[in-house]
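Blinded run. Sample ID left blank on purpose so nobody reads anything into the name before looking at the predicted structure. Input follows.
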Amino acid sequence: MSGKRTICVTTDCVCDLPDEILKKYNVDVVYFYIETDTGRFRDVSEITAQNIFEYLKNGGQKSKTNAPAPDEFIQVFTKKLKSCDEVIHIATGSKISASVKNSQAAVEQMGSLGERVHIFDSGHLSTGIGHIVLKAAEMVNEGVVDSGKILAELEKMRDMVSSSFLADRADYLYRNGRVTKAVQIICSFFNIHPVLAMKDGFLGLKSVQIGNYEKSALRYVRKELKTPNIRTDRLFITHAGCTARDIKLIKREVNRIMKFDSVIVTKASATISGNSGPRTFGLLYVKDE
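Blinded prediction complete.
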């Protein structure tokens, strides 16, 4: 290629960014898969969170998430390199997914072409990844053509992203090994709503809210937004199976406590939703250093 160098950003579909944002920044995604008793489906395009919830509610047993295989990463990277000099792929955290491992294997299989692809371990999931994707895409849009500079900024940003979620029940978390059977029983008996958060690349139990779901949701919002030094440029409210009433309640409480330049409501992918269950939502934001 001649002329000014160009960089493209790609990511995993579990970044949970809306299509209009992905298209605006020319970000292509690589798709995860969900295996069920009835077949293997590509996340987002072939299966949704609601499909998963209905399937499990109606007696479905198997629900396994698979990261894309190396050959699928190769297809996306090769396509992007036809129009870009370099690709930065922002992957789901390596401690919770095989995305980093598989995308790195793809790069190795691409030979000299792979030298133009950079894999970044986001250390996050859902729109926690989304914040990092948008940082990279905005730097590219601003004319930054040094991939090393972009990656250095992403490294600094990774620990500043807060990814947490409140789940209605612990049933799905137990099913996917996130909590023990004892925790699941206690949560069910005492109407306890688990709060999970990413820490050091792992998704774990952060705290709990007890009692009525709506009141618990508001307490979670208030507690999260008490975090010092929250950047007010962008907040994602990402949810799985929340009602319109739930979202209205959550947004109203957010706006009462803190004014963000942009509050974006997004739907969680089937990959994320199948691990958390219906009426799960999270507040995902970036903190200052």
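Unblinding after everyone has recorded impressions. The CA atoms of residues 59 and 98 lie 28 Å apart.
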